[in-house]
Structure formats: structure tokens, C-alpha cells
Amino acid sequence: MNVLLIMSDQHNPMFTGCYGNSITRTPNIDSIAKNGVMFDTAYCTSPLCIPSRGSMFAGRYAHEIGTWCNSSPWDGSSKGWGHFFKDNDVPFCSIGRNDFKEGCDSGIETCILGRDRTSYDVHSLYRDQASLPRLSKLNQLRSTRRREDYHSRPFHDFVIAGRSIQWLRKERPMQEPWILNVQLFDPHPGWAPPPDLWDYYESVINIDELSEKYFDTEENLHPYHKAFASHHCGLLTNKEDLRKAHIGYHSHCELLDRHIGKLLVTLEEENLLDDTLIIYTSDHGENCGAHKMWGKMNMYEDSIRVPLIISGPKVQKGVVEKTPASTIDIFPTIVEAVGLEDSSGYRGISLLKLAQGVDDAPKNDFAFCEYHANGSPEGLFAVSDGKYKYVECVGARPMLFDLVNDPDEMHDLIVTDPDSEEVDILVERLRGYLLSVCDPVAVNQNAKSDQADIRNMLLPTGQLEEEIYTRGYERNTDKLVNRKKSQAYLRS
After folding, report:
1. Average model confidence (pLDDT) for the chain?
2. Peptide bond preceding 91: is omega within 30 degrees of 0, i.e. cis?
3. Sign of the alpha-carbon dihedral angle for 66, 67, 69, 73
4. C-alpha angle with apex 87: 83 to 90, nearest 5 degrees?
5. Cis bond upstream, residue 395 (ω within 30)
6. Closest residue by Cα to residue 370 from 434, 430, 308, 306
7. In the predicted model, is pLDDT for residue 487 greater than 70?
8. The sheet that has 399-402: what strands, in order across it?
9. How many CB atoms lie within 10 A of CB 159?
10. pLDDT value of position 483
């Protein structure tokens, strides 16, 4: 069969109808779930664009390929999907941003409207200093607004969706199978939706009715999450910021859904639905103010949990699958879908038989996620079995959450039940899963060593200073210092 992989940017699954949100209008994503299998506990491999996308396309965890942060994009040297499908003569087209290293040999046969990473997010190169408020993110958040001229401008996703439709109608190989990866930008910030969406969501959103996680206190946060809340300005935002952000984010989730609808209509009109496996996912989530967090880059569910929905030939309809899954499983799933044997030795398992309801289908015991970038002084590692999530914080105490009885993650069991034998047993079991993947201390050391090398590489060229200045800091390469104008803004 053919495969259409649709990947969005920064979509928290809880902002869809099929995952239980009664406000967000996502009829097209919901239709994929209605006609397929929705994985309820699916995770990205790292809650940041470059490591998440690089890891997924390389079929390896971020620490295995050195994609630590947004300063270390995947260079293709480890080989990945593109190389595998090229070697096996399966046409593979990717449309939209990949976020690989500029000039990377991804192996992907056809890249259209691709955008590689050419800049360095130098925040991750200064993790040894105390987190500074990243005021550009606060400005971006407070720029959320009703955009009158939205429909008169060719925004990114209109171009990506239109080009993908053209490929499906006129350029797809007539022989089967083929693979098309469509990478949409929404609902990544900034959020400036058209008037019809802004007005609708402004009329239905009541901030006072949001769950308690949106009113979490700084005192309740783990020290590492507190550091990130400071970095991404969660400690500086107010209730009005939260209200506008939710209007904007809901709106852009619906905009995303509209583009997905265009792709589904095209499949139907081209008589491809019966022969095409559809997979929808995202590179990571969005906190949208939960736990005083904005963006991603932390280990709360809002950040690391992603939508993962599969529909197509022989796939069960309307099923919610509780087994843990990961974006690392997408590659082996596609391999099986196009009729190949997965001899690659890459990470992950095929989810196809599980989606088709086969009794002895392979299942994951856990999903793994890691983070090695700005806002966190040391490495973070999470493992989830779908019921409990353990977070290892190198250099600090761990975290443990009961995802069934405490879905908002308000009660860290390490703190609330420190003498519980049951908690000790859970920690030992879940940490065993983590150690089966990597040594957290060693990986953390490798990440910081590589980031130091990147900093030293950029320093003599002058690019380090320019990247620092571009992001709102003084031209000081020893440490990040907010510019005087920014410091005045902080005091105001």
C-alpha cells in the first residue's frame, strides 16, 4: 500500500476533538481517528524540533545520533529512512520543513519546499549559567492577535498543502507503493488567526473553566521545570496572556485541520483511500500555559505527548489503543506497510499489526523521551508505560506521576509519597526501562561536551556573537546577558 504521513509542528493532542477536547473543532483529524486507530499514549523522542525530527527520520534516539538541541541538526551520516527506501526502490517524497543540517544527505529521493537549519539556537550552548528569561518568546506570545488580512496572504501551510495536492494529483508514481511525507507548520506559534476563528474561540473559551494545571504554582514545580518556566517567561505571564494564547492556539489547530481536510479530499477524489495508509502525528506538543510553561522543552505530558493516528487498509475503525507508542515507531510501521522486511536494525517497532487488530502484534512496554537543551541545566529523561511516568533529572531528584489518577500531573509522587514502598517499586521498574536504553549520566556528559564543541567552533568565525545578538543579548560570548532594553522591559 501507499503511505501518507502528515506531520504537524507543536500539536498537543488534547487540542483535538478525538482526544477529548469539546472546544477545538478538528473534524478531519477526528475522521482519521473514526476510521482508524488512535494511540492514546504516544510520545515524541525529544520535545524540541531538531532532535525530534532528526531522531524520527534517522530511526535512532537523539543521543545516538547527536541531535541534542536546535544547534545540532541531523547530518544524515547515521543513515535513515531516506537511505533505506532509496536502497529498496520505494519512491519517497517529503514536502515541507525537515529541519536537518544544511546540505544534509538525508537520502530522501524528492524534497520539495524543504527548509534545513542554518542558524544556531545558542541558548543550548550556555546551559551552565542560570536560565535567563527569553523575552523574544514573551513578545511572541503577547503578539497573539486577530489577524484581519490573514486570508489575503500566502501563509506557509497553504503553500505546503497546495504543493502536496499537486504531487498527489499529477506527480505521484503510478506504480505502488509510494511514500509522501507532508510537514505542516501549524499550530506552531506565533498565533495570529483570521477573524472568523478568533471571534469563534473568543466566544467559547472561558479561562476560569480550565483545569488546575493552568494555575499551577511556581512552588509546586521541580527545580528544573522552574528553571524552564523562567526561561520561557512562564513566570512573567498573566491571565490575559493565557486567554489570548488559548484563543490563538485553538484557532491554529483548526487551521491545521482544514489543511489536513484538503489532503483527505484529494485522496478520495484520486481513488487512493483504499490503497493508502494515513498516519497523522506531530513533532512534539505545546504546554499553552500549563504548569507555567510555554512552548515545549519540558517533561510534562503537554510537551512530550503527541497525536498518533493510523487509518487505512485493514486497520480497525474507531479504536483507542492504550499501548505506549513513539514517533520512533513510525519508520518500521511504514516499512511493513510498503511490504518490506525491516532489516535496518533501527529503533522502534511496527505498529501496523497492532492497528489491524492482530492478536500477537508486537507491543511496546514503554516509551522513551529525552531533553538536552536550553532551559534545563542538565539532561532530562522520561519513560512512560501509559499508566506511570518516571522522569530522571541528572543532578537532581527524579519525578514520578500517576497518569491515570493525576492526568494533570499536579502531584509528583516522589514528593507526596516519599516513604511509599509502592513508589519505590515503580521507580525501580521504570528506571530499569530507562537504563535499558542508555546511561543518563554518560549521555548528559556527551551532550554537554558536543555543545561546548559547537560553541568553540562558532566563536572564532564571529557567528556565535551574531547569533547571540540576534536573540536579544549583549555581544558577550562568555555568557548570555539580556540587552539593556530587555532589562528595562523586565523591570517595567
Report:
1. 95
2. no
3. positive
4. 95
5. no
6. 434
7. no
8. 367-371, 380-384, 388-393, 399-402
9. 14
10. 87
Q: Is 417 exposed, middle or buried (0-12, 13-18, 19+ CB in 10 A)?
A: middle
pLDDT at 491: 45
C-alpha to C-alpha distance for 271 and 457, rounded to whole angstroms = 52
- For residue 430, give the nearest of 465, 463, 472, 387 by alpha carbon: 387
DSSP structure class, residue 170: I
Distance CA 395, CA 227 (A): 14
d(CA 437, CA 30) in angstroms, rounded, equals 34
**Closest by Cα among 243, 234, 145 to 189:** 145
Question: Locate cell 521504570: which residue?
Answer: 430
Name residue, grid cell 514503554.
Answer: 366
User: What is the architecture, at CATH level 2, of domain 2-358?
Assistant: 3-Layer(aba) Sandwich (3.40)
Residue 35 CB coordination number (10 Å): 18
Q: What does the pLDDT read at residue 324?
A: 98
What single letter denotes the amino acid at residue 5? L
Dist. CA 33–CA 323, nearest whole Å: 16
CA distances from 317 to 2, 83, 179 (A): 19, 33, 22
Q: Shortest CA distance to 116 belongs to which of 49, 182, 60, 27?
A: 49
**Alpha carbon distance 360, 174 (integer Å):** 34
Sign of CA dihedral 329, 334, 335, 339: positive
Q: Kindly calculate the radius of gyration of the chain based on its CA atoms and give it in whole angstroms.
A: 22
Task: Give the C-alpha distances (Å, rounded to integers) separating 466 from 99, 125, 471, 473.
Answer: 21, 14, 9, 10
pTM of the model: 0.96
Q: Closest Cα to residue 308, out of 290, 320, 291, 296?
A: 320
Nearest to 112 by CA among 99, 93, 90: 93
Neighbours of 34 (CB within 10 A): 15
In 168-293, at which residue ranges do the beta strands (DSSP E only) sit? 179-183, 276-282
Q: What tens digit of pLDDT does each residue of 24-69 get?
A: 999 999 999 999 999 999 999 999 999 999 999 999 999 999 999 9
Spatial CA neighbour of 260 closest among 185, 320, 197? 185
Q: What type of residue is 387?
A: K
DSSP letter, residue 133: P
Cα separation, 419 vs 399, whole angstroms: 14
Q: How far apart are CA 487 and CA 63, in angstroms?
A: 35
Distance separating alpha carbons of residues 398 and 431, to the nearest angstrom: 10
The residues spanned by each domain of the chain are 2-358, 463-492
Using CB atoms within 10 A of its CB, is residue 140 exposed (0-12), middle (13-18) or buried (19+)?
middle
Strand partners, 96: 183
Q: Which amino acid would we find at residue 14?
A: M
Give the angle subtended at the CA of 52 by the CAs of 110 and 212, to the nearest 5°. Answer: 135
Quick: pLDDT tens for 343-357.
Answer: 667 899 999 999 999
Task: With beta carbons less than 8 A apart as the criterion, state whether 16 and 29 touch.
Answer: yes
